[in-house]
Write a structure and sequence with these properties.
mainly alpha, about 220 residues, 11 helices, binds heme C
């Protein structure tokens, strides 16, 4: 009797944990590490920043001159995607097939790229769609500090801290996710370490141009 009750409890707790863990948006209070929500368009950093080697600041140009890195407007995507309407492999395959069969190439349009046109209020030929206004793509925000914390991208970028130090290997991520906790301890650890490594006699800092980041409360709290 005791045995089976214990077994029942172990299985029940195990199952409970498993459903918790498999819930894709499991978030511990105060720690959003690993948070990687589904986005309205399947945008891939691995493809754009990794394979195509686009610079982070090409799209997140705000990080150089303001607090916020910013998400690029749909017009920036259109610079390329008025021309690139589908996966390149599919386009090449269709080109080869059309040549082999001696017919006209069929225009391809990926459903994900079509969503970019919809947001821009245009059709695949770049003509405005009647009655449809351009709107921004409703990207789901991933990183968010509480309101009582002051954070500024600009000082970090100017100080030579790589995006990856704080966001992890984004260029390898199919879907963007939060890599670090963004807790106070996490900020402090780097501020202290950078300070130590730049003291005279301690050898050069890894980040050229990095100065002594402050650990005063007032620097990060209003
Ligand atoms: C072609 C434009 C483009 C390039 C290049 C690019 N990004 Fe992004 N980035 C986006 C878009 C669009 C989003 C919003 C959708 C998403 O989260 O995937 C985003 C989201 C992010 C986020 C999450 C923002 C949030 O919601 O908290 C981070 C962090 C980020 N990018 C960092 C980087 C880094 C680091 C690089 C360089 C390795 C980079 N990005 C290169 C377009 C780009
Ligand atoms: C500098 C040019 C460039 C910019 C800017 C750019 N892309 Fe792309 N994107 C490409 C290329 C090239 C491909 C196809 C790569 C391949 O198939 O190997 C692609 C592929 C894609 C795909 C996959 C299409 C499919 O069906 O396989 C999506 C989705 C996408 N881009 C979304 C975006 C969004 C959203 C933005 C703006 C935030 C953006 N891109 C900005 C060049 C660009
Ligand atoms: C010192 C750590 C650090 C560095 C370096 C850093 N970020 Fe961030 N990033 C953060 C934090 C913290 C947040 C959340 C900010 C908030 O909620 O106000 C954030 C938010 C973002 C966001 C979404 C919100 C916004 O600000 O628009 C994007 C996109 C982003 N970072 C991209 C980048 C890119 C690209 C780089 C490199 C050019 C970069 N970050 C460098 C820590 C960093
Ligand atoms: C990977 C290392 C790193 C992390 C993580 C980091 N910082 Fe920094 N931070 C720096 C460096 C380096 C500087 C100094 C840049 C300079 O002055 O050249 C700095 C400067 C600052 C400054 C400007 C004040 C000053 O002393 O110059 C503020 C504010 C700040 N950081 C807030 C934060 C907050 C808030 C977080 C956590 C959400 C954070 N930082 C996480 C490296 C980091
Ligand atoms: C380098 C930036 C930085 C410095 C310096 C800093 N904090 Fe924080 N602090 C943070 C961040 C980021 C959070 C939010 C952490 C979170 O939400 O997990 C935070 C949160 C807090 C909280 C709220 C705790 C909670 O559970 O929500 C208090 C209180 C606090 N800090 C006090 C201080 C005091 C006192 C000092 C000076 C000794 C200080 N902080 C210095 C970045 C900093």
């Amino acid at each position: 009797m005791f045995q089976s009750l214990r077994l029942f409890l172990v299985v029940a707790i195990g199952l409970g944990l498993m459903t918790l863990i498999s819930a894709s948006d499991l978030r511990m209070p105060g720690n959003d590490r690993g948070y990687s929500p589904e986005q309205p368009i399947a945008f891939s950093h691995r493809l754009h920043a990794g394979e195509l080697k686009m610079d982070c600041l090409f799209c997140h140009y705000g990080a150089r001159k303001s607090r916020h890195a910013g998400i690029p407007p749909v017009e920036l995507c259109l610079n390329c995607h008025l021309h690139v309407k589908a996966n390149l492999d599919d386009i090449f395959l269709e080109k080869a097939a059309a040549e082999a069969e001696g017919r006209e190439e069929r225009p391809l349009l990926s459903s994900e790229i079509e969503k970019i046109y919809q947001a821009a209020g245009i059709n695949a030929d770049g003509e405005p769609l009647e009655g449809q206004l351009a709107e921004s793509i409703p990207w789901v925000r991933i990183h968010r500090l509480p309101d009582h914390v002051y954070f500024d991208h600009r000082v970090h970028v100017a100080g030579g801290v790589a995006c990856q130090s704080c966001h992890g290997p984004v260029q390898a991520m199919e879907r963007a996710r939060q890599e670090h906790s963004l807790s106070m301890g996490w900020c402090m650890d780097c501020h202290r370490q950078t300070k130590r490594s730049t003291l005279p006699g301690d050898g050069a800092s890894n980040d050229p141009g990095a100065t002594n980041p402050s650990v005063d409360c007032a620097v990060c709290h209003y």
